[in-house]
Amino acid sequence: MKKLVMVCSLAAMLLCSATMALAAGTIKIGGLFSVTGPASFLGEPEKKTLEMLVADLNAKGGINGQKLEAVIYDTAGDATKAVQLATKLIKNDKVVAIIGPSTTGESMAVLALTEKEKIPLISCAAGIKITEPAKDRKFTFKTPANDHVAVEKILQYAARVKQKNLAILTVTDGFGASGREQLKVSAAQKGFKVVADETYGPKDTDMTPQLTKIRSSKADAIICWGTNPGPAIITKNIKQLGIKTPVYMSHGVASKKYIELASPAAAEGIMLPAGKLAVYDVLPKNDPQQKLLREYDAAYKKTHGVEASTFGGYAYDAFLLVTNAIRTKGATPAQIRDGLEQTKKLVSVSGVFNMSANDHNGLDLSAFEMVKIHKGDWSILK
User: Fold this and answer.
1) Are residues 212 and 158 located together in one domain of the fold?
2) Which of 34, 116, 123, 131 could be disulfide-bonded to 360 (CB atoms 3.0-4.6 Å)?
3) Same domain as 354, residue 233
4) How many domains does the chain have?
5) What positions does the domain Leucine-binding protein occupy (predicted)?
6) Contact assessment for residue 27 and residue 67, using Cβ atoms and an 8 Å cutoff
7) Sign of torsion, CA 335 53 288 309?
8) The domain containing residue 171 runs over which residues?
9) How do strand 368-374 and strand 377-380 relate by DSSP bridges?
């Protein structure tokens, strides 16, 4: 009996030591961002935001006494490279969750691996197919609002101003293909008529042929779907062709970089659904996001010397979702997954997140404001 007691005591001591070691250890999370390459306007602010937040959290003592370490790799926007780096994060770096990638195409490529390895992936890309159907994406989540939500926001406004005949111009990558599908389905359901349906390649440098066709379609409005540099080129082409038709862009250009690339003169009057970060200074004081948005922008300006972007906000959301899950459920991949899925009323940059077993995005129409570009800045459409 005495021997048994000693064995039990030893086991208890080992368990206690392991628990103490875990509490004192470091929680590793991965980051996959397009820091360089054509999607660097997405990945660079995402990387900088995550680094800033991790440093701030650790300076305040970490999570339940544990420090957080972000192991970040640059995918350069390449889906094959993203999968290779995700494998490295899982096998070599032993991360408990991955934030990113920055684009829909990369995310679709990586999620097959993360689902197989049961590592939570919190994508910073918008394509609806990243998280749907949720029953087949048990470990996959994302922070930008679904593209069908952005489509809905545009079509609501277009209906209000009686624009019934629509021309669409979409990029042929994962983001554009998903947007095109959502545009066509939603337009048909809501009684709009698509009078022109044009596409362009991610590396195309002139879209005047497509825009010339659109001009002859007599559309009431043009909806463009893509991420820079394509939309900026389209905006310049529209100006050059003297097209006066109202133009909507997707939420994929909701940063000042788009205005800079297109030029304020060419971008004047362009409309789009944007996250509230772009217009936080004119939000009502009782808006639940206003305080957090102001603080994020101030911290980013202090650290990096420029204003925060919607895209960096996607990494902010993912960081907040992961750390909230760790606090409420625990730091293993399975515990983080459960915590993510049970997220309720979490106020962040992109909106107020309410996840469920059937919804691994958790945002609705309130995530966006319809904005118009005026004199190189954003104004809220009334």
Assistant:
1) yes
2) 131
3) no
4) 2
5) 26-362
6) yes
7) negative
8) 147-281+368-380
9) antiparallel
As a whole number of Å, the CA-based R_g of the chain is 22
Separation between Cα atoms, residue 174 and residue 10, nearest integer Å: 56
Alpha carbon distance 379, 269 (integer Å): 10
Low-confidence ranges of the chain (pLDDT < 70): 1-24
Spatial CB neighbours of 106, under 8 Å, sequence gap ≥ 6: 32, 34, 75, 77, 78, 79, 82, 100, 125
Tell me: do 85 and 168 sit in the same domain: no
In this structure, the answer to whether residues 375 and 236 fall within a common structural domain is: yes
Identify whether the C-beta of residue 172 lies closer than 8 Å to the C-beta of residue 199.
yes
Q: Is the pTM of this model over 0.90?
A: no
- The predicted-structure confidence for 49-62, as pLDDT tens digits, reads as follows 999 999 999 999 99
Contact between 15 and 9 under an 8 Å Cβ cutoff? The reply is no
Return the amino acid letter for 143: T
- Nearest CA among 129, 253, 239, 110 for reference residue 181: 129
How far does CA 340 lie from the centroid of its chain? 16
CB 177 within 8 A of CB 148: no
Helix and strand element counts for the chain (H, E): 13, 14
Q: What angle do CA 48, 54, 55 make, to 5 degrees?
A: 90
85 half-sphere exposure, CB direction, 13 A CA radius: 23
> What angle (nearest 5°) sits at the alpha carbon of residue 84, between those of residues 80 and 88?
165
Residue 13, both tokens: 């001591």
User: Would residue 225 count as lying in a domain?
Assistant: yes
284, two tokens:
């009502």
Lateral strand order in the sheet of 221-225: 193-200, 165-171, 221-225, 247-249, 271-275, 368-374, 377-380
Tokens standing for residue 259: 């205005």
